[in-house]
Each structure stands twice: as C-alpha cells, then as structure tokens.
Amino acid sequence: MYKIAIVGDKESILGFKAIGIDVFSVKSPLEARKTIDSLAKDDYGVIFITEEILEKVRETVERYDDKTLPAIIPVPNSKGTKNIGMKRIEEYVEKAVGSNIL
User: What is the pTM (predicted TM-score) of this model?
Assistant: First the structure.
C-alpha cells in the first residue's frame, strides 16, 4: 500500500498531520530536493508539495512528471495560492483529453 506525504514549510503543512498524512517540513531547496527523492524511493504514491517550495525545486518535480508514481501535487501554502496547482491540473487535463476543458 502506498503512503501519502506533504512537503513544505512547517506553518503550512502541520494541519495535514491531523488527517494522517506524513508531514515533512523543509527549510531549503536542497532539503526539499532530498526529501522528495527519498519519498519517491520509499513507496509514497502521492506527495503534496506547497507551491512556494515547488517554485524552488521545479526541476526535481519535473523529473517525476512522466512517471506513474509518485504523483506530486502542488497545494497552496499558508500565505495563499499562486495558482500553480491549477495550472498544472489544466496541463494534465489538456494532455489527457487533447484540449483544455476546464
């Protein structure tokens, strides 16, 4: 069975622990890269990542875009959204369907 994790700043991700998601607080892009790579090797099927961290480690996340697992899903941080997650979903839908239906 695959696990679910979230990677981001402590203030933004701590609440996810209450619903049973494994929480990984990171303070630097290097730490985020290492954490994502480690989680990908450790049977995590879904990795949520805050949009702010995603912007800093985009190349690491893009390495997993063509793989089935893990699914890396951006979420807003405690300061609000940058619409990165919605843009990625629109790209995925357009790739799957052939046009943007959203």
Answer: 0.81
